[in-house]
Amino acid sequence: MGTILLEGMEFFAFHGCFKEEQIIGTKFIVDLYIDVDTTLAENSDYLKDTVDYSGLYLCVKKQMEQKSHLLEHLAKRIVAAVQNEFPAVSAIELKLAKINPPLGGKMHQVSYKTLWRK
Prior knowledge:
The protein is of the alpha+beta class. The chain has a single domain, classed as GTP Cyclohydrolase I, domain 2, CATH 3.30.1130. The protein is built from 4 helices and 4 strands. Strands 1-2-3-4 form a 4-stranded antiparallel beta sheet. α3 runs antiparallel to α4. The mean pLDDT is 95.
C-alpha cells in the first residue's frame, strides 16, 4: 500500500457564494492524497500498474472548471470523480483552499478538508 500525493495544484476558478466570485474568479490551491496498492508497480516499474498522476490531475482540473457555490460541494464532486475514474483507490484526502477570500478583511486563505475511505 502506498500514498500518492499531488500537492499545491493551482487553479484559477469561479467558485463562491457571492456573484462577484462567480464572475471575476480567484486562485485555488488543491492538495490530493490517495491510498492505493502499489505492490505491483513497485516490482514492475510500469506506469500501467499504478495510478497515473497526470490522470489524477486532469480529473481534479475537470471538476475545478465547473462552478460551485461551496467548497464542500466541490470537494464532494472531486472525491466522487476520483472514485469513479480510479476504482483501485482505497482512500482519498482532499484539501481545497480559496486564496484571498472576500471576507471584508485581510486573510490568506480559507480551506476545506475531507477524507474518504472504502
